[in-house]
Q: What sequence folds into this?
């Protein structure tokens, strides 16, 4: 005779198994994915999305030397990132159907923008749009230039709820995000995609955030000249055999710390770029403070809270064209301007948040750069440009 406690244990195990088998990240197993079962997806996206042969988002290869990862409780899945891709490119996420995430983060620009301030439904953004490539590969888990989002998930819905950007703010005459949820709930392809991903068709803010974050984290770039050299080298300090003499010089200048005299004037060593943008991810150090840029786009006053930056990978396209302008104000048009900014740091009145690495001895650094050094560092930065991220269909617009 089976004892009641054993029966109870068996039932509990069955419930647990059922919960994980039908978790919110799986569709109903055994149901064939056909044009008949998902007619709106088929009609809207055609061959751009094939639910029977999803793009590979979850199991992309990355180099063994890439160790940073800010994914926490929302791992990338092929289904979730597919939904995230649709959401990322869908102008229905704005109140007047004119702006999508991709309006400010363009694939052709490493998911950045050439405009100093990107256009929204009620004006322009207050900061330059940050490139999104390799957003996953950083110790820094906070997002936006001023780190106001505690995670990428939180970040994804903030532009949607911004009055100027996408217009579901609940202020200044805007409807709130509940209106967006109702709007998307009535769109046929979202009814089908949410059911495909989550097991039911309910549209929620959490589900939107998770799917968008999965898609953004999937955008990666590790097919650059730098990666080809790093793969066959023992470390970053060694000369890369596939690099030119100029590129290797630029790499050493980027990696090595400068040697300063008592007046913060460089008398030897490198430029110290890796102090805040360490190889091989070239992501921002979470402890970094303001970099000396304190302006505000189209406004007076100062803004000293901007302490995050995108990865330095893909600051240029494969052909060397720069993905500028740069900085949160977009005030530096070229990489030469960027290096020039760090070459002479002037501590502006009111900037109490300047990173101390830029002001040794309490005095703004003077790197005393030569033209040879500037050109070498730019040549090195160009080696981090990938190819696939600019053209791969899985990160492209799914709408015909």
A:
């Amino acid at each position: 005779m089976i004892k009641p406690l054993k029966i109870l244990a068996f039932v509990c195990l069955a419930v647990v198994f059922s919960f994980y088998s039908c978790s919110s990240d799986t569709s109903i197993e055994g149901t064939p994915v056909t044009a008949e079962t998902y007619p709106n997806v088929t009609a809207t996206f055609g061959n751009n999305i094939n639910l029977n042969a999803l793009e590979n988002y979850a199991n992309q290869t990355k180099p063994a030397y890439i160790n940073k990862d800010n994914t926490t409780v929302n791992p990338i899945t092929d289904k979730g990132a597919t939904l995230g891709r649709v959401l990322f490119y869908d102008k229905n996420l704005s109140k007047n159907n004119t702006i999508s995430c991709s309006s400010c983060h363009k694939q052709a620009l490493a998911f950045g923008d050439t405009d100093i301030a990107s256009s929204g439904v009620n004006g322009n953004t207050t900061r330059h749009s940050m490139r999104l490539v390799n957003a996953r590969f950083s110790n820094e888990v906070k997002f936006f230039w001023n780190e106001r989002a505690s995670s990428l998930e939180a970040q994804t819905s903030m532009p949607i709820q911004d009055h100027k950007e996408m217009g579901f703010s609940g202020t200044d005459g805007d409807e709130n995000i509940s209106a967006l949820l109702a709007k998307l709930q009535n769109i046929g392809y979202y009814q089908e995609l949410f059911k495909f991903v989550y097991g039911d068709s309910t549209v929620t803010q959490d589900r939107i955030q998770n799917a968008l974050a999965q898609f953004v984290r999937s955008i990666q770039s590790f097919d650059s000249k730098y990666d080809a050299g790093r793969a066959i080298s023992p470390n970053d300090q060694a000369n890369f055999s596939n690099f030119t003499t100029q590129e290797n010089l630029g790499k050493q200048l980027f990696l090595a710390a400068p040697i300063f005299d008592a007046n913060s004037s460089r008398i030897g060593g490198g430029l110290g770029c890796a102090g805040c943008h360490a190889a091989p991810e070239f992501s921002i150090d979470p402890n970094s403070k303001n970099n000396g840029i304190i302006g505000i786009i189209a406004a007076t006053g100062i803004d000293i809270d901007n302490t995050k930056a995108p990865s330095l990978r893909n600051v240029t396209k494969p052909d060397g064209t720069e993905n500028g302008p740069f900085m949160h104000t977009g005030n530096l048009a070229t990489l030469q301007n960027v290096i020039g900014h760090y070459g002479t740091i002037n501590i502006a009145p009111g900037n109490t948040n300047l990173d101390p690495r830029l002001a040794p001895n309490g005095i703004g650094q003077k790197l005393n750069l030569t033209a040879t050094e500037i050109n070498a560092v730019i040549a090195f930065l160009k080696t981090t440009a990938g190819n696939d991220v600019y053209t791969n269909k899985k990160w492209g617009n799914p709408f015909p």
